[in-house]
Amino acid sequence: MWGDVTPAERLRAVTRRNVDDDRLAAEAAGALAGFASEPASLVVACRRVLAHHRTHAPLWWVCARILAAAEPAAAAHTAESELEKDRTADRLGAALPLLDEGEVIAAIGWPTAFDDALIERFDIDAVAVRVDGADPTPVLRRRRSDHAVRVVDAWDATLDRVPRLLVPAAAIGPDHALVPLGTDDALAPIKATEVWLVGGVGRVLPGRLYDALLREREDDDDLEEISLERFDRIAGPRGVERPIDAAARIDCPVVPELLRPLG
Fold first, then answer.
1. What is the pLDDT of residues 168-194, one digit of tens each?
2. How far apart are the two ends of the chain, measured CA to CA in Å?
3. Coil, strand or helix: which one is 2?
4. Which of 160, 145, 245 has its CA nearest to residue 204?
């Protein structure tokens, strides 16, 4: 696909073109592999791609793993493979409960992992909740599942019987997570038995990298920080776990090159 395109041109294309959120980190990993033979250029490339997507945790995860590796090219391809083989949707689909009459599974916005999880769960009635930081309508137009999905606000009567409420995470740290703006206000009116935070490969970061990501946030990024204590479980590639267990399973190093302000 990329032919004779230089690593810099490929990275620029990946960084600036309209890539789906869940594809961005994998494509960036493939592009960053082209800088592996030049350590100084690799650092600059990682910092540059992060400057364009400051709150995208999987990008921080990719860059940290590549910069810490003895063989950056191999680390880049491994990261790309792990992102592409993310089992979060499969695990989530298997963990969602059977529903009684009138019950629905609700999601803030419309997480891609939830959409993929529904491909094999024809028994589930799903509802997408609109909040300030997540309008599910555009995402639903390009979804893969065939479910009929209603878009509602948090106070809709449909949400009176919700065994599970799913919240997508932009980034997960040791004690807090970044979620769509308006999620905190939506949790109160929705009568959910359990609230699950939906992560995925690369979403859980060590404390110092998570703090660095927070410092780089833009004022209008449509995200808010929320305590992990608000969630009963975190759904990720290993399945559905307690927040304390999921947050402790960090597979990302802390590298000094990413702790300095991106500028």
1. 999 999 999 999 999 999 999 999 999
2. 32
3. coil
4. 245
